[in-house]
């Protein structure tokens, strides 16, 4: 026997339109859950990439002892380049450092009051490592080089950034679970109310021989459609937010968002959001149907 899929779809849409205000509430709750879930997934997708890229591109500043001759500075640069884990080394002479800092008028005035340049020669070292332990090991080897006065390791900036990212993921995951549970209950309540409001109609359908599955199917379809619509809206909002933020950062600050969010919003993540929210709506409908026997007066179960 062929199932009347067209009837199920039309009936579910008719039910949703009949109580469109409640349907809108359910879709909004599902969309919020999907939005937080999508943001959590974005952070999760980029976490490993951040750990690798930030570690690989971590930079140290090696301060050389004041008074080194240009030849000794070049020798220190070459020695630093030979250290394992070092990708590149740039020598910054006191004159270059003073010229860079002089771009700030206040600093330029302060340097002008001094009779001699107080800035030491320094090396900008870019590391190519995969873990913080490797970075610390490279820093220790750099400290041991001749002519090195101190090494600025950035005070764990990479580790702090990754910790903040982890906290943000935890918060988004908690919000996603909270809104998912709330959306589940709202969808169940909306569909249960719909079944109750149609109890006489459903009772007549049952009397003329309609099966339980035939009566239940439109409610399941309605929950599914609510979830799919909410997931689609959330995916579009998340993609729009990413595009807006990227354009704003690029135009205002000249920052490329792709450099900080290499695995951004794409069709795959959008499809996962739509599918997951559709399943959530379907589950809410199933919960409603599990308790909707009150719609049948005189029947013990649906």
Describe this structure in words.
The chain is α+β, with helices and mostly antiparallel strands and 302 residues long. The longest helix has 42 residues, at 212-253. Residues 294-302 have low confidence and may be disordered. The chain has 2 domains: 5-53 and 159-295, no CATH class; 54-155, Alpha-Beta Plaits. It contains 11 helices and 4 strands; from the N terminus they run ααβαβααβαβααααα. The radius of gyration is 31 Å and the shape is rod-shaped. The protein has helices spanning 5-18, 20-56, 70-81, 94-101, 105-113, 132-143, 157-197, 199-207, 212-253, 257-260, 267-290; strands spanning 59-64, 86-92, 122-127, 148-152. It has a 4-stranded antiparallel β-sheet with strand order 2-3-1-4. α2 (20-56) runs antiparallel to α7 (157-197).
């Amino acid at each position: 026997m062929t199932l009347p899929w067209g009837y199920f779809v039309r009936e579910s849409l008719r039910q949703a339109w009949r109580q469109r205000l409640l349907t809108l509430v359910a879709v909004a709750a599902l969309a919020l859950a999907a939005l937080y879930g999508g943001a959590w997934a974005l952070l999760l997708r980029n976490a490993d990439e951040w750990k690798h890229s930030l570690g690989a591109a971590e930079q140290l500043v090696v301060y050389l002892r004041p008074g080194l001759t240009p030849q000794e500075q070049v020798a220190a640069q070459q020695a630093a380049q030979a250290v394992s884990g070092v990708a590149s080394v740039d020598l910054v002479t006191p004159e270059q450092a003073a010229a860079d800092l002089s771009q700030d008028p206040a600093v330029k005035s302060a340097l002008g009051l001094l009779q001699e340049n107080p800035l030491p020669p320094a090396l900008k070292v870019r590391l190519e490592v995969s873990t913080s332990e490797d970075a610390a090991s490279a820093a220790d080897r750099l400290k041991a080089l001749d002519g090195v006065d101190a090494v600025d390791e950035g005070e764990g900036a990479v580790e702090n950034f990754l910790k903040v990212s982890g906290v943000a993921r935890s918060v988004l995951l908690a919000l996603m679970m909270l809104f998912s549970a709330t959306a589940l209950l709202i969808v169940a309540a909306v569909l249960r109310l719909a079944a109750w409001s149609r109890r006489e109609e459903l009772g007549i359908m049952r009397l003329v021989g309609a099966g339980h599955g035939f009566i239940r199917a439109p409610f399941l379809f309605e929950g599914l459609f609510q979830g799919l619509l909410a997931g689609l809206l959330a995916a579009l909002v998340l993609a729009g937010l990413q595009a807006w933020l990227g354009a704003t950062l690029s135009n205002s600050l000249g920052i490329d968002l792709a450099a900080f969010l290499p695995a951004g919003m794409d069709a795959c993540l959008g499809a996962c959001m739509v599918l997951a929210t559709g399943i959530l709506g379907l589950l809410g409908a199933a919960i409603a149907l599990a308790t909707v026997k009150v719609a049948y007066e005189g029947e013990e179960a649906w």
